[in-house]
Design brief:
This protein is mainly alpha-helical. The protein has 2 domains: 112 residues, no CATH class; 87 residues, no CATH class. It has 9 helices and 4 strands. A hairpin with a 6-residue loop joins strand 3 and strand 4. Helix 7 packs across helix 8. It starts with 16 loop residues before the first helix and ends with a helix.
Length: 236
């Protein structure tokens, strides 16, 4: 993992997050707790499900998944990069909205808040689920996670304090970042760089920086890039 810079809530004309996600969500929460809707809309009233917001179940909230409306905006804001695997997610390959504070444990209003969303591929979202032992990509600092370019396993940096090292390890374990699938994907991309099918047409490093930024950063940090790419990094 690498640090993910929090992006501002999208606003018109690009995407009206407040109007498309937050306000419909808050209105649904009002009706679900027996209050008057805060927005006018066609169709019947939503049936009351609980007296208090905190008593609403995730199953009920998922019936009003207005957060899915923000998926394209989330994908664009974070350049399509999964916050956990650090690989580009093609729009047809299952980008998802991860509620970092899961709707099973958060105040229901957080289900409709932009700052609680992380872009995640479907596999990472499923692994994280509602568990709270995964480091927030917004809080991660570059260098906490390192990549062994021989085994393609992700490890905590050696100089981390014990508590932080444990949290990095827990994050790797929870997300299964060292599963055969994840390691093979990193290995395949690494080999794409070093052994292209057509040696006369090598894949440029900038492509990796845009589509696999954690792998590219570790390749550059460890000097495992072609001389011309190292020269560009050094400014020479």
């Amino acid at each position: 993992m690498i640090r993910v810079e929090k992006q501002p809530e999208p606003r018109p004309p690009d995407f009206d997050f407040d109007g498309e996600v937050r306000q419909p969500g808050l209105s649904a929460l009002a009706e679900l707790t027996g209050q008057a809707p805060t927005l006018s809309r066609p169709g019947p009233r939503i049936r009351k499900q609980a007296d208090r917001l905190e008593d609403l179940s995730p199953k009920v909230l998922r019936q009003y998944d207005y957060w899915t409306r923000a998926l394209d905006a989330l994908h664009a804001a974070y350049r399509g990069i999964c916050a956990y695997s650090c690989f580009y997610i093609e729009p047809i390959a299952g980008p998802t909205v991860d509620h970092f504070v899961a709707i099973t444990s958060a105040a229901p209003r957080e289900a409709y808040e932009w700052n609680n969303y992380r872009l995640a591929c479907s596999l990472m979202n499923a692994c994280k689920n509602a568990f709270a032992d995964v480091l927030d990509p917004f809080d991660v600092r570059d260098g906490w996670f390192v990549l062994n370019l021989d085994t393609f396993e992700v490890d905590p940096a050696k100089d981390l304090e014990a508590d932080l090292k444990k949290r990095v390890e827990d994050t790797c374990d929870r997300l299964k970042l060292n599963s055969p699938e994840c390691k093979n994907m990193r290995r395949r991309w690494f080999n794409m760089y070093w052994t292209p099918k057509d040696p006369t047409r090598p894949v440029p490093l900038w492509f990796f920086e845009e589509h696999a930024p954690f792998l590219a950063r570790e390749m550059r940090r460890q000097g495992r890039v072609r001389p011309e790419d190292q020269e560009r990094a050094d400014g020479t």
